[in-house]
Design goal:
With 374 residues, this protein is an alpha/beta fold. It folds into two domains: 237 residues, no CATH class; 102 residues, abc type-2 transporter like domain (abc type-2 transporter like fold, 3-Layer(aba) Sandwich), CATH 3.40.1710.10. It has 13 helices and four strands. The protein has a four-stranded mixed sheet with strand order 2-1-3-4, with helices on both faces.
Length: 374
């Protein structure tokens, strides 16, 4: 590109910057939208089961039963509710007033250390299988800790078949927020990048300014570059805001390099902007462009990126489809950089995939774009 070409690009960038300042919708998409979505998903979406209503049925009071139930009252995971008999507790679970029943039989104290069948029952609501599994794990943890402590207090030797010592790497607090918020950034940046370019270009077609631009001596690649630069800067501003909120508002640890995070984010944003430009080549209406951006970028990124749903648990043919989702690679990098640090095999492999996808999108945009009015 010669000197005249760079001057034209500079003029187009200045034109887009002025248009952004005059039209607050672009700023809202870049800054207000990520903040709003982070607030909604960061506080509203959680995989942690806390304050679970649990029915406690104690058929016969004893010091052991009182000690065990006290541990459930003190646990942050449960909100115990006492019931006099099992029928009342079962009726409460049918009406979803409780999510589980802990049933201490009348022979609980006498059978505690006999080695026979445990005089304790746990009934869970299996409508939500994931919550049921989590609650079962919580109950097992409270029961195991209490059993060891109670045996020591009674001067008994408790022989467990397996002595488990847990070591949780990367997220020792086991906070689902630490896992969800980095992935949410990828979903948000996918939507922002696609909306910024697709809807803005569609708006120019609706207002007639695109036709005026096409009849000038400016070249097509200069038009694309002039639109890419300001919205890339705007999108990176939204990314910086999202990272700041993740670290300072949601207290997600950032164990990797901020420079690495921003570098990979720029590659992903280029891919997202390329998707938006590609949408703009087929949709000259803002409503259609917005709908296409949501259905072709946001929803696949939300469902198929590994943000919430484990890709390894999906059917094989769905796992194959996920390789065409740019957010999949960005989610992997975000979760690694935030929680584990700079894991270079993860960073390089996924960054290469993002660079290839960005190149493919811009190549498709160049092939489909023509400097003509029809």
């Amino acid at each position: 590109m010669n000197g005249g070409g760079w001057r034209r690009v500079k003029g187009l960038v200045r034109k887009e910057a002025l248009q952004i300042m005059r039209d607050p919708s672009s700023i809202a998409i870049a800054f207000v939208l990520p903040a709003l979505l982070l607030f909604i998903f960061g506080y509203g979406v959680s995989l942690d089961a806390k304050r679970v209503p649990l029915a406690l049925v104690v058929e016969k009071s004893s010091p052991a039963a009182s000690s065990l139930t006290a541990d459930f009252y003190e646990s942050q995971w449960f909100r115990p509710v006492r019931y006099g008999h099992i029928q009342a507790a079962q009726e409460a679970m049918r009406h979803r007033r409780v999510e589980g029943i802990l049933w201490l039989r009348s022979n609980f104290a006498s059978r505690l250390f006999t080695g026979g069948p445990a005089p304790i029952g746990l009934i869970l609501n299996g409508v939500d299988g994931n919550t049921a599994r989590i609650v079962a794990g919580y109950v097992d943890g409270v029961w195991s800790n209490w059993l060891v402590r109670y045996a020591a207090a009674q001067g008994r030797q408790l022989s467990l078949p397996v002595n488990v010592e847990q070591r949780i790497w990367f997220n020792p607090e086991v906070r689902s927020t630490n896992f969800l918020v980095p992935g949410l950034i990828a979903v948000i940046m996918t939507l922002i990048g696609a909306l910024l370019t697709s809807m803005v270009v569609a708006r120019e077609w609706e207002r007639g300014t695109m036709e005026a631009l096409l009849v000038t001596p400016v070249r097509l690649r200069e038009i694309l570059l002039g639109k890419l630069v300001p919205y890339f800067c705007l999108g990176m501003g939204g990314q910086i805001l999202s990272v700041a909120m993740a670290v300072y508002l949601f207290e997600v640890p950032l164990r990797g390099s901020l420079a690495v995070l921003m570098g990979v984010s720029s590659l992903f944003l280029l891919a997202a902007l390329g998707m938006g430009l590609l949408i703009s080549t087929v949709a000259h209406n803002q409503f259609i462009a917005g709908q296409l951006a949501i259905f072709t970028t946001f929803l696949p990124a939300f469902i198929l990126s590994g943000f919430i749903f484990d890709i390894g648990s999906m059917p094989g043919w769905v796992q194959t489809i996920t390789h065409a989702i740019a957010a999949r690679y960005f989610v992997a990098v975000l979760q690694s950089v935030f929680l584990a640090g700079d894991i270079w095999p993860v960073i390089w492999l996924n960054s290469l995939a993002l660079a290839i996808m960005a190149a493919i999108f811009f190549a498709l945009v160049r092939l489909r774009s023509r400097k003509r009015l029809e």
